Amino acid sequence: MGRGKIEIKKIENSVHRQVTFCKRRGGLMKKAYELSVLCDAEVALIIFSSRGKLYELATSNKSMMSTLERYQRSSATGKQLNLYPGSSNEKLDLEVKFLRNQVEQLKATNRYLMGEELATMSLDELNELEAQLQKGINQVRAKKTDLMLEEIKALQNKEHILRMSNIMLQGKLDECTNCKDSRFHGFITTSSTSHAPAYTCGFNLNNQSLSSTIEM
Fold first, then answer.
1. Which parts of the sequence belong to the K-box domain (predicted)?
2. Helices (H), 8-87
3. Which of 57, 16, 3, 59 is nearest to 36 (CA)?
4. 78: left (phi > 0), else alpha (psi -120 to 50), else beta?
5. What's the rounded Cα separation, in Å, for the pair 192 and 199?
6. Cα-flanking dihedrals φ and ψ of residue 47, to 5°?
7. How far is it, in rounded angstroms, from Cα 49 to Cα 26?
8. pTM above threshold 0.85
């Protein structure tokens, strides 16, 4: 019994829609690659998801751009078109469209990183998101470690400077203390030497007076 015909219309359930998109996108890319290999054909495939995420496949040995340029040169109009038209307005329109697509992709990526709309993502996309988040966490931790090491090194340098300053101040304090002790010791020695003759003289005078008194 053959499979029933699927009605071609938008899938309302967001989860089912995302699952179908992932499966059919993979199948389409696989078929495009097989076509290029089996038939030696140059194939370019560009897909934007409903959330603005870009998927592309280019079988050219060069790049997607080379295939697009070849398409422009071989367009059915027979005109030699240019990817960047001479008209400034057309060029600006292309740039605006490109920037809008970039903004939508960044918004979608930001929503994923914030943990939003995860229900619509496939297992492969969740694994990819988890790997990206883990990589970001590792980079944040590495930067945090570097900053902490720099702060520790700066504190160690300050500690060394303070220690050296303390040693210098202690040395100056010791010099001042030794200088005061030397001056005080010299003052005592000088004072003792200057008073000794007066004492002896007084003693002699007293003895002389005493002797005179006794003789009388």
1. 89-179
2. 14-39, 64-73
3. 59
4. left
5. 11
6. -135, 130
7. 13
8. no
- Round to whole Å and give the CA distance between 186 and 180: 10
Report how far apart, in Å, the C-alpha atoms of 32 and of each of 13, 55, 146, 190, 206 are.
Answer: 28, 13, 47, 113, 137
Evaluated on CA atoms 196, 198, 199, 203, the torsion sign reads positive
Sign of CA dihedral 174, 180, 184, 187: positive
Distance CA 52, CA 106 (A): 9
Among the listed residues 104, 13, 96, the one whose alpha carbon sits nearest the alpha carbon of residue 53: 104
Sign for the pseudo-dihedral over CA of 92, 98, 103, 104: positive
CA atoms within 13 A on the CB side of 1: 1
Structure tokens at 34: 């097989």
- Tell me how far apart the alpha carbons of residues 178 and 88 are, in angstroms, rounded to a whole number: 88
**Domain 14-80 of CATH type 3.40.50.300:** no
Instruction: Please write the tens of the pLDDT for every residue from 56-107.
Output: 888 877 677 888 888 887 765 445 445 555 556 677 777 787 788 778 777 7
CB 22 within 8 A of CB 14: no
CA distance 178 to 169: 14
213 vs 190: which has the higher pLDDT: 190
